[in-house]
Amino acid sequence: WTGRVVSAGADLSVRLWDVRARRPQVFKFTGHTDVVTALLLDVEKSAVVSGSRDNSVRAWDLRTGRPR
Fold this sequence. Notes:
By secondary structure, the protein is mainly beta. The protein has strands at 4-8, 14-18, 25-29, 36-42, 47-52, 57-61. Strand 5 and strand 6 form a beta hairpin. It is globular.
């Protein structure tokens, strides 16, 4: 996971970045309807879990970009 970063912001999305790549955005995860306020990265399971002010928790597979 060297060089990879997960971020969230007011645009309601979570993004996976590869800061070493020419095109750094790897995936953009969407589905929340309010601001994302929490992230959990599980490298062993290749997953990211996010929490939002919309009272939802979502999980995505970091290898495929698909919901879990």
